Amino acid sequence: MTVRRLSGDGSAPKPRPGGEVNISAMRSRDLPQCRNRAHRLVMTQPDADAVPSDAVPWRALFLLGSASFASSAGLRFCDPLLPTLADAFRTTPGGAAVVVTAYAVAYGGFQLVTGPLGDRYGKVRMIALGATLCGLFTLACAFATSLEQIAVFRFLAGLTGAAIIPNCLAFIGDTIPLAQRQAVLARYMIFMSSGAISGQAVGGLLADAFGWPAAFVMVGGFMIAAGLTLTVQLRTNPVLSRRTAVPLGGLAGSFRQILASGRTPMGRLVLATVTAEAVLYIGAFTFVGAHLHDKFDVSFTVIGIMTALAAVGAVAYSSFAPMLLARFSQSSLLALSGLAFSVSFLVIALSPWLWPVGLAIVLCGGAFALFHNALQIMATQINPEARGASIATFAFCFFAGQTLGVLCTSVMFDRWGPEPIFLAAAVLMPAMALVFRTRLLAVQQA
After folding, report:
1. Which is the most buried residue in 15, 127, 323, 425, by most CB within 10 A?
2. Distance between CA atoms of 341 and 360, rounded to whole angstroms?
């Protein structure tokens, strides 16, 4: 990043031999104009697309991926703890679910704040601070004496944890050339998917072996370690410490950029599609476990393993993404994801055997990773001048869509059971992918 002071005619004053600008050499008649309109600092940075293709900062991305791994684990590790927490605090699993809801509400709502803060103060600084504070609040849950205290600490953990993943995505958008961005984001998703799997699996195992506080200690400790490591690296790694341009108007300007994100054709398309994706996919997939229990009468351990196969599918896609992106066009991959959604939800709804459902869940997770990865790429291009704010808006729409989707499918499940939900998803998900593919081509050609 460079800083230039503009002269009265809009050009930069000639620097001295050492690179310093001789402000005193500016003509006096230029000073009023400088005060009125040009006496300001303009922050510039190299365009990510101008970065050499072999300059991908893999070490920095690994550190950010580790923080995202911890964030994804923190989002999901309480799910298997609900029966244990219910017994410990003499309530029902539904009552204990407040620790999940508190985190999710804070995490989703605060996205709109952490994105502009990342633009203003530095994305990696916000990631490091968010991971450290989220880890401390998670660790505090282990010493809570009531369910209400855990809910409060989880809410605070959600507020601070919201800074991690959106700012990581924005950092990738700032740093990685567009031609390589989708492959890099696909590899980054391995950390997120692995974190979700590990959070659910390790959380339950630690709770069984050492009690529920052990799960909070493990996840909190990992988050603190990730945050402190990034804090140290900020002083030594120039890639991580690089600042981007701040939108004019400071934080107020960033929030105006959030409102502007949905005004461009690309912004409207991406934000509407990610909302629809969350409504349809999360709304339907939420009830896969209940469907398996009712139809196949399997244990909750089997249900946990089966639903975790979606993350396995996401990891599989992320591993093969560079090869797929090199061989197929983005338009073809979007059409392929729609077909995979249709087949997987049809099998989940209609299969009389359990093993095809497991394969369908893997396919469904891979299709979601493929489609969502494409949306993430577009989100990084909505507003490059305020990429943190744009990604935050994208994440907020995704979480809002999840909430709306689960509300709708809950009503459907109570009235008609799970099969109509999956059949509707089998029709609407490929339709959504087809509409997005068609509209994307139109926007790109406009």
Report:
1. 127
2. 9
Highest average pLDDT, of 28-37, 103-112, 243-252, 423-432, comes from: 423-432
Query: How far, in Å, are 200, 318, 352, 443 from residue 366 at the CA level?
Result: 19, 8, 23, 26
Local confidence band at 22 (pLDDT 50, 70, 90 cut-offs): very low
Q: How confident is the model at residue 253 (pLDDT cuts 50, 70, 90)?
A: low
pLDDT digits (tens, 9 = 90+) for 185-215: 888 888 888 887 777 777 777 887 888 999 9
The fourth-level CATH superfamily of domain 261-446 is MFS general substrate transporter like domains (1.20.1250.20)
Q: What residue segments make up the domains of the chain, in order of their start?
A: 2-44, 56-244, 261-446
pTM: 0.72
Please give the single-letter amino acid code of residue 287. Answer: F
CA distances (Å), origin 2, targets 45, 51, 394, 446: 7, 16, 29, 34
CATH of 56-244, one of 3.40.50.1100, 3.40.50.150, 1.50.10.100, 1.20.1250.20: 1.20.1250.20
Which residue did the predictor score with more confidence, 95 or 283?
A: 283
Fold match, 56-244 / 261-446: yes
Q: What is the pLDDT of residues 215-236, one digit of tens each?
A: 999 999 999 999 999 999 888 8
A 10 A CB-CB count for 339 gives: 15
**Residues 421, 282 contacting (CB under 8 angstroms):** no
Q: What is the pLDDT of residues 32-64, one digit of tens each?
A: 444 343 333 333 344 444 444 445 678 888 888
The model's confidence at residue 258, banded by pLDDT at 50, 70 and 90, is low
